[in-house]
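Dear colleague,

Thank you for sharing your sequence with our group. We've completed the structure prediction you requested, and as agreed, I am returning the results in plain text so they can be pasted directly into your records. Please verify that the sequence below matches your submission; if there's any discrepancy, let me know and we will rerun it promptly.
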Amino acid sequence: MLSMITAFLISTAPVPAQCRAVDGADQLWSFGRVRLVLVGEVHGTAEQPLMFSDLACLAAQSGRRVTVALEWSDDEQKFVDAFIASDGGARARTRFLQAPSWRTPGPDGRSSAAMLRLFDDLRQLRAARLLRRVVAISPARYNGPTQRNAGMAHRLLSVSRTSNDLVISLTGNVHASRAPIAVGGQLIPSMAALMPRATTMSLAIFSNGGTAWNCQDNCGVHSTGPGRSEKRRVILTNFPGQPFDGIIELGTPVSASPPAVPPLNK
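Please find the predicted structure tokens below.
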């Protein structure tokens, strides 16, 4: 039932005539030296992928050529390419939902209904010739989190080096932070820590509290923290040594976005 509702919402969504404004977003691509914009989210919300969609749209209308990179299994690039090039109709969605990542036994929020909507937003931007490509950067095969972060960084750098595009990526906020990641009592480098500092800008999305559908002790709806009172905007911190170059304020609480395809173990 959920996937049918999601499909209806996507099929009736209009082609974007203009981007939804985000105060201060132009700072992210107005500097010619910046070639990589890393956006970190809490997986499994309805609002954070939508904010990323807005940022991708604004970047694409800034006059710079844009490629989007997502934390999605790189061996499913053919599924992504086919959907992004499609008309977004029922047959195209059905084929896209055959990608294994939509049917993982323990979905962590990356296969949410909101992510399916994000893919369709990006498809519409591509159809409007405002976006060049959508690239999957999460390695399908890796030996531990160190190799996974290195693989994502390598994929991002490869995309950046082989084009003059502004590459804007969406990953979990741990990967987008330059702070080392604690794993099994050891610290390992994050994806962002492996990116060239001079040409990379890293940001985290913050909300005014709410819930997310992801896997912590269990997979389901979890709190994202206490409520706050902030407005929708981008704030650059410019503090040396900080894990992020700035924050993206949603200006609203978030709400949990469950898997686009119900989990197999439910």
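Summary note from our side: The helical segments are 2-11, 47-60, 77-84, 90-96, 113-127, 145-161, 173-176.

Kind regards,
the structure core
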